[in-house]
């Protein structure tokens, strides 16, 4: 797990967004070695390649949950699995297991997470980001708005992914979390 640290405005989130290619970099290269062993420049790769990598290899947990308004929480979490061709029943089973671990009550699973509290939305966001077991996981304040108990559960899940070999690039503003979780730390400064 590599942590990016630095003051607000230093570009930490922008780096993650450029890697995920939500923003199109105007210059430079972002090299990624795919599961097939091919080196892909994420800064200039074709959109189809980027979408395929997002579907299979690169996960992103942003600071805010973006989801369709009327989609049930369990389907929001399972959506990466559906895109890979997993059945709705199997996807929901896997999503339910994660939602239980993150203490989302079962009566909320059929509701849209757009109506949830900030902490509940962030847990949905985290579950959706990790359910596909990506090779590279981008985390932008994944424990923001979580209580102590749920933060511990989330960090345990992130550690499990790390131990399974997932590469993780993360932003944590809490220095204790950086110290606890990071193997490498990069300090960014505003210029």
Using the CA coordinates, give the radius of gyration: 16 Å
| Strand/helix succession | EHEEHEHHHEHEHE
Strand content: 5-15%
Give the overall silhouette: globular
Description:
The chain has 191 residues and is an alpha/beta fold. The protein is 42% helix and 15% strand. The protein has seven helices and seven strands, in the order βαββαβαααβαβαβ. A five-stranded parallel beta sheet has the order 4-5-6-1-7. It has a two-stranded antiparallel ribbon with strand order 2-3. Helix 6 links the parallel strand 5 and strand 6 (167-171).
What is the gist of this entry?
By secondary structure, the chain is of the alpha/beta class. Helix content is 42%, strand content 15%.
List the helices and strands and how they pair.
Elements: E1 2-5, H1 12-20, E2 31-33, E3 39-41, H2 47-56, E4 58-61, H3 73-83, H4 88-101, H5 118-130, E5 136-140, H6 148-164, E6 167-171, H7 175-181, E7 184-187
Parallel strand pairs: 1-6, 1-7, 4-5, 5-6
Antiparallel strand pairs: 2-3
Please name the defining characteristics of this protein.
191 residues; alpha/beta; five-stranded parallel beta sheet; two-stranded antiparallel ribbon; 7 helices
């Amino acid at each position: 797990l590599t942590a990016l640290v630095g003051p607000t405005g230093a570009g930490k989130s922008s780096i993650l967004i450029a890697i995920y290619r939500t923003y199109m970099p105007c210059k430079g290269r972002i090299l990624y070695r795919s599961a097939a062993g091919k080196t892909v420049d994420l800064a200039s790769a074709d959109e189809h390649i980027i979408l395929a990598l997002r579907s299979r290899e690169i996960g992103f947990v942003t600071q805010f949950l973006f989801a369709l308004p009327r989609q049930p929480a369990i389907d929001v979490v399972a959506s990466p699995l559906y895109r890979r061709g997993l059945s709705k029943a199997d996807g929901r089973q896997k999503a339910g297991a994660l939602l239980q671990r993150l203490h989302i009550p079962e009566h909320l699973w059929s509701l849209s997470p757009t109506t949830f509290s900030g902490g509940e939305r962030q847990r949905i966001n985290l579950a959706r980001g990790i359910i596909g077991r990506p090779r590279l996981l981008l985390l932008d304040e994944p424990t923001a708005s979580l209580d102590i108990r749920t933060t511990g559960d989330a960090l345990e899940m992130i550690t499990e992914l790390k131990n399974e070999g997932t590469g993780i690039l993360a932003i944590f503003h809490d220095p204790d979390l950086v110290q606890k979780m990071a193997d490498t730390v990069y300090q960014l400064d505003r210029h």
